[in-house]
Amino acid sequence: MQTINLKTLASALGLSVSTVSKALQDSHEISPETKQRVWQLARELDYVPNPHASSLRRKRSKIIAVVIPEVADSFFTLAMKGIEVVAQQKGYHTLIYLTYESLTKEQTILHDFQSGRVDGLIISLSGQTTHIDHVTALERKGIPVVLFDRIFEGTTLPLITTNDLESGYLATQHLIRQQCRRIAFLSVSDSLSITRQRQQGYLNALTDSHLPSEPDLMLTLPAHAADQEAIMTQLLTGPKAPDGIVASVEKTAILTYQLCEKLHLSIPEQLKVISFSNLETAPLLNPSLSTITQPAFDMGEAAARTLFGLIERKSLRTMLPLQCIPSVLIPRRSTQLLAG
């Protein structure tokens, strides 16, 4: 079967390839009569434009990259949906890359982008990332970059985030109001800005309620599952076990639930739990999980719109402020104050 392309149409009509191309794009440079001839033949021959070839001529790949630590976390699943909505509206494809919390993998992925295979990047940093030289190097190559959720403080890159400091405060204050007095804070990385912000909110709430901050109750769990379980078991069964937990990521809340079941500890009678989480099944857990629910979809959508503003040169990077979209506290049975 013959491939129908611009050259085929041009040859059949006795026109130049550029004239046919402009006619198909409804250019004002082409007369209505010529446009009609081109469109009619294109329909008859079932001509389908090649967007890849067109993008090459414009020196654009029509592809954006999204680099995230994982997809198991419900936050990133929802954020990707927000990004995809905007990308599809713009006629772009989205490539998703996972760092698995590795700085080395993150650096390797971004280095590959320097060839220009993508038109822009949206990234949420890995748990090991303590500098962003590899990110700014990409921007210096002319590839727009937007950071979201796990951002880097002090950079001039566009940032999309939520009110982590305030949310850490609200989560801890909620437990205090439910009569918790020994509250633990669980995280998986102490290098992330979101962890520092959430933990500072936790500490501020303890201070305002005249409760001591105890280093033994602020845990950064290791990557290995067996080590996590051992540390958490020691925390929950020790002589100074907490009566409340702020889980800075949902995987630590799920681990807490699993260990409470294993150790025959009752939630919320013996331990109250609140987590930063977008888990759709949070209301269905036994007991239902109280959450700080982040605006994941909105953050993904905002990150994508910011990126395309840069790609299309509709916005100047230096004029893009940090965008902060508030989270919401949703109390459920895991922090319920029981009578008696």
Overview of this structure, please?
By secondary structure, the chain is of the alpha/beta class. The protein has three domains: 6-49, no CATH class; 63-162 and 296-325, 3-Layer(aba) Sandwich (Rossmann fold), CATH 3.40.50.2300; 164-293, Response regulator (Rossmann fold, 3-Layer(aba) Sandwich), CATH 3.40.50. It has twelve helices and twelve strands. The strands form two sheets. Strands 2-1-3-4-5-11 form a six-stranded parallel β-sheet, sandwiched between helices. A six-stranded mixed β-sheet has the order 7-6-8-9-10-12, sandwiched between helices. Helix 5 (74-89) links the parallel strand 1 (63-68) and strand 2. Helix 1 packs across helix 2, helix 5 (74-89) packs parallel to helix 12 and helix 10 (225-237) packs across helix 11 (250-263). The chain is elongated. This is LacI family transcriptional regulator.
